[in-house]
Amino acid sequence: MPLSSSQILFFSTLMLGTLLSISSSSWFGAWMGLELNLLSFIPLISSKNNQYSSEAALKYFLIQALGSSIIIMSASFMMSSSELATTLFTVALLLKAGAAPFHFWFPSVMEGLQWNQVIILMTIQKIAPLSLLSYLLYSNTLYIVPAAIITSALVGAIGGINQTFLRKIMAYSSINHMAWMMSAILISETNWLLYFSFYCLISSSVAILFNYQDVFHISHIVNHTPHSSHMKILTFTSLLSLGGLPPFTGFIPKWIIIQEMVSSHMFITLAILLASALLTLFYYLRVAMTALTISSPKTKWSTKSTISSYMTPSMIYMNIFGLLAPSLFTIIL
Amino acid sequence: MLPLRWSHVPGGSGLVRALRPSGSVVSRIPPHLRQEDGNDTRQKRFLHVHSSRNIIFGNTKTFLKENLWPCSRVNRSIATTPVKQLFWEKDPKGGYSSKEKRNRKELIQEGLKELRIELSKWKGEVIEKFEDDPIIVRPECLIGDMDKVWILKNEEQLKNWVATSDKDHGEGYSSCSLSLSPAGHGLFSGQINTQVPKDGRVKKAGYCNMKSIRPRLSFKREVYLDWSLYNHLELRVRGDGRTYLLNISTAGYFDLHWNDMYSYPLYTRGGPHWQVTKIPFSKFFLSSKGRLQDKQCPIPLQRVVSLGISAGDRVNAPFRLEIDYIGVYSDPDHTEEFAYEMYKLPKYIVGN
Questions:
Q1: How far apart are CA B94 and CA B107, in angstroms?
Q2: Least confident stretch, A294-303, B93-102, B149-158, B248-257
Q3: Chain A residues near residue B130 by CB distance under 8 angstroms
Q4: pLDDT, mean of residues B136-149
Q5: From the CA atom positions of chain B, what is the Rg in Å?
Q6: pLDDT confidence of B69, banded at 50, 70, 90?
Q7: How close, in Å, is residue B338 to chain A by CA atoms?
């Protein structure tokens, strides 16, 4: 996809900010990386001339700036009163990541972005806050993170139930997956990185598919182009993979987390996470069944005559490689 | 990045224009304002009456500072109200809210009475969220068909609309009303009076407006009308041949967007026959507080707040517009995204 030079610049500083944040030896360095991340993401999302996209960019900036200010405040008195500092730091990181109960900005901001920016917001923008959260947890004796896990799971599940706009559905699914990621953080760092990498691949595959079809609503997915049978199968499998159904790739990280949580005796959290996963699967299934079964030749959205991108099918077929799950375990673990 | 909204001080006086500090204009400052005489009550009163925001200015310096910095050296002769070059809006209603102050105790008592209604509404919404399914795909026979958003057939439906005119805030003498016509449809009628009231701050007069009330959820939460699945606005009207202006307000979250209005004229035929007018949303152009914006963009259809119909075509005569329904229509073959070309190259193209 053709990137302009400014987009390449901001993309590289985005990655630089993230790496700086997770590899710094002090909380100030972490804050610096987060700020660099924020400041390079803003030009990436404010390029459209639409009223609503500029509103989304402004909302994003204000929320993240609030989070950054709380982070630097708590970084400043981490030495003196470390309990309060870690509590505030955790709260600010949850705000930055978009976890419940600080998630209210997330669907609204996602609604105003294009699919490319949605992918960045769902994947790369989560790396730094969640990594810093994993560094914090050794000293956190409070119940903020388990409470955030439970509320994120429930909010992500219940919030997405009657939505028809695909970006809002992806927003609530991201909130739900963050609950799984945070519970993976509580277990071990390897688990979290595993879950996160799988989640990035799967959700970006879903978003790339929607971007290719140029759809923003469930009713836009119906199509009758020559590629449509490919697209239907791919949309169906990618969405079910996102929901964590067994033959697909999305099941693998969930399986690992479930196993680890059972051996760590976190049963109540696990029960709530599983129930919420079922609810999220309900609304993915609604989208997936619509995509697979309904075909209508009369909607305007069906006349996309673009050349199929070389990356699209390759990125998406990896949703199927979950069938190779046993070999994965021998490699990774 | 953000589109700018040039606004004007509502009801600003011609006096402010004369106070712009360009060389030829300084001499036009009235002599009693050039000297600041604290004892001169007439001077103070003069400044106070002409400030539309009821801010008491002690002296000329504050008045200049409030209204002119950063100051413009261009004296625009087309616009008749002064340009205020700040984005910040103090009031979502722009100074036109009702001035009555209610007793706090009365307000609390009224609110408690409404609590039961709001709770039942909220219960309905929760049930709708969990039990009802959204309409995903319209059945094939209905594709290309229309959804009627407002049907004006009885008094209850007319309560969703508010009719205002320039007489309400003392800026003119037009009158209008929204009632039921003898045929049983909504009738927006009145008299446009282009006589300008003689209070020095109004330059042009003569408009009447009917606007739909913003949709609200339980507990008076403001929500938007979502028309993103449609691409035309359809009205069945019977007019009197005059031109009306359709205004779709998409007031946003921030004050920059509070006054965003997308407009397009509605040309009526007059005569005894009804007309069905379908206007694509791509034809609506952006304006803010009456000023057409330089940076145009297509209307954000998922953030529609209200629709308004204005009568104000500078003809001093009665008007009559009968409306059957107003709906939204989805035309699958309409591929135009925006009708107005911006002639702007993307930022990274060198040499533009």
A1: 23
A2: A294-303
A3: 161-162
A4: 68
A5: 24
A6: very low
A7: 11
Q: Coil, strand, or helix at residue B64?
A: helix
* Mean of pLDDT over chain B: 77
Residues in chain A closer than 8 A to B260 (CB atoms): 51
Q: Which two tokens stand for residue A281?
A: 């699967």
Query: Among all chains, which residue has been given the structure tokens 């710094």?
Result: A24
- Interchain contact A57–B (C-beta under 8 A): yes
Query: Could you tell me if A274 lies within 8 Å of chain B, comparing CB atoms?
Result: no
CB atoms within 10 A of CB B32: 12
* pLDDT digit string, tens, across residues A55-75: 999 999 999 999 999 999 999
Question: Given A6, A51, A162, which is nearest B257 (Cβ)?
Answer: A51
Tell me if chain B has a CB within 8 Å of the CB of A282.
Answer: no
Phi, psi of B84 (to 5 degrees): -110, 120
Question: What's residue A197's pLDDT?
Answer: 92
Domain count, chain A: 1
Closest chain B C-alpha to A152 CA, distance in angstroms: 19
Contacts of B297 in chain A (CB under 8 A): 49-51
Mean pLDDT score, A264-282: 94
Most A CBs within 10 Å, among B129, B133, B137, to test the A interface:
B137
Q: How far apart, in whole angstroms, are the C-alpha atoms of residue B278 and residue B262?
A: 16
| Nearest chain A residue (CA) to B254 | A55
Interchain CB distance below 8 Å, A296 and B137: yes
Spans of all domains in chain B? 1-84, 142-329
For A217-240, the pLDDT digits (tens) are 887 776 656 567 777 888 888 899
Cα within 13 Å of Cα(B83), Cβ side: 17
Work out the average pLDDT over B311-325: 92
The model carries a pTM of: 0.82
Q: Please give the CATH number for the structural domain made up of B142-329.
A: 2.60.120.430
Q: Name the more confident of A299 and B242.
A: B242
Q: Do B3 and A54 touch (CB under 8 A)?
A: yes
What lies within 8 Å, CB to CB, of A34 at 6+ separation is A17, A21, A67, A68, A71, A96, A128, A129, A132
Which residue pairs from A232-237 have beta carbons closer than 8 angstroms and sit at least 24 positions apart in sequence? A232/A291, A232/A292, A233/A292, A234/A209, A234/A313, A234/A316, A234/A317, A234/A319, A235/A206, A235/A209, A235/A210, A235/A287, A235/A288, A235/A291, A235/A292, A236/A288, A236/A289, A236/A291, A236/A292, A237/A316, A237/A319, A237/A320
Q: Give the domain range for residue A37.
A: 5-332
Top pLDDT among A121 and A3 is at A121
Residues of chain A contacting residue B298, judged by C-beta atoms under 8 Å apart: 50
Percent with pLDDT over 70 in chain A: 84
Residue B202 tokens read as 């109004």
Q: Which tens digit of pLDDT belongs to each residue from B23-51? A: 333 344 444 444 444 454 444 443 333 43
